[in-house]
Amino acid sequence: MTCENLCGTVVCEEHAPKTPENALLSRRGLLGAFAGIAATIGLAGFGDSAMAASKTYVACKTTDLKVGGAKLATLPGTSIQVVITQPKKGTFKAFSPFCTHQRVMLSGIQGTNLVCQQHGATFNMTSGAATGGPTRTGLKSYTTTVSGTSVKVTV
Ligand code: FES
After folding, report:
1. What radius of gyration do the chain's Cα atoms show?
2. Quick one: pLDDT band at residue 13, thresholds 50, 70, 90?
3. Portions of the chain given CATH number 2.102.10.10
4. Which of 119, 122, 136 to mutate to test the pocket of ligand 1 (most atoms within 8 A of CB)?
5. How far is the CA of 114 from the centre of ligand 1 (A)?
6. Nearest-CA neighbor of 17 among 117, 84, 106?
């Protein structure tokens, strides 16, 4: 696949959509390389624990979205984007905002589904499962917690 920004690169990291998966892939790639070096010099195991690290961010306030609604959020201090949903009052979910068909950003809500207008894929806003369209792969989901009025997402 060539870069959609037509920069001529087959796999272009500069123009690739910023997602938690991309960020983790990049981090894992670097950590994987470091783990190989660490193993070589007798520090095996260091890379494994570093790769398992995750971080929790305040993504939004509970009042930022209505019940049955969704909100795109960029996690503070990162370029990681997530879509937050509130399928039931007080229940918040977080998913990758990129369609699993061709990685186009989701664009709306239809009933209880998140929708990709590109080719009509739909995803359940509670589970992230694919519910229609050209993909059977659900959205990547993230652990979400509520603390006071803060919706926190762990990636
Ligand atoms: S890119 Fe979303 S349905 Fe094709």
Report:
1. 18
2. very low
3. 56-154
4. 119
5. 12
6. 106
Is 101 touching ligand 1 by the criterion CB < 6 Å?
A: yes
Taking residues 53-68, report their average pLDDT.
97
Match domain 56-154 to its CATH number in 3.40.50.12780, 1.10.357.10, 3.80.30.20, 2.102.10.10: 2.102.10.10
Length of the chain: 155
Predicted TM-score (pTM) of this structure: 0.70
- In this model, does residue 51 exceed pLDDT 80? no
The answer to whether the CB of 48 falls within 8 A of the CB of 55 is no
Instruction: Indicate the SS3 state at residue 102.
Output: coil
